[in-house]
Amino acid sequence: MSEIFANGTVWALLGVALAASLSGCGSAYGVGVAGQAAAGVVTEDPSKFAKVLILQLLPGTQGIYGLLVAFVTLSRIGILGGTAPDAVTGMLVFAACLPIAIVGLVSGIHQGKTAAASIGIVAKKPDQFAKAMLFPAMVETYAILALLVSIIAIFSI
Angle at CA 112, nearest 5°, toward 108 and 116? Predict the structure, then answer.
């Protein structure tokens, strides 16, 4: 069992799995929460479909960011090309994947809640769509920062 954790590829793949799955879970939750709010609005006024759909889709970006980090990491560790990492490099890659994994999970959940609240704004005041977009976009900022940290860290290893 100890030789498994001495394998750099195992550590790196754990990072890949966390980056893709945790950020994907955050996005799935966020899109689901916002989708519930959007469905309620569209039931009452189908003409608001496009506006609420845009708001619903915003929490989905975290999953995309996690997937991007996963693909970049897979190409860097020899799975999709390149060379297999030693144990220390694998642990570094694992650590580099953690920012988007953790922040993607948390920000996806909170962006979904914020998007749902913004959908409520659009339901009552459709002319305030641009202002409503700003609230979930503020949460997106932290997902982008985590993406940058993970990408820079992976390319620096």
Answer: 170
Contacts of 68 (CB under 8 A, 6+ apart): 147, 151
CATH number for domain 2-156, candidates 1.20.120.80, 1.20.120.1200, 3.40.220.10, 1.20.120.610: 1.20.120.610
Contact (CB, 8 A) for 15 and 73: yes
The total of other beta-carbon atoms located within 10 Å of residue 108's CB is: 31
3-state secondary structure 21-61: HHHHHHHHHHHHHHHHHHHHHHHHCHHHHHHHHHHHHHHHH
Structure tokens that stand for 22 in this block? 């945790």
Q: What is the pLDDT of residues 71-91, one digit of tens each?
A: 999 988 888 766 778 899 999
Q: Could you tell me the pTM of the whole model?
A: 0.91
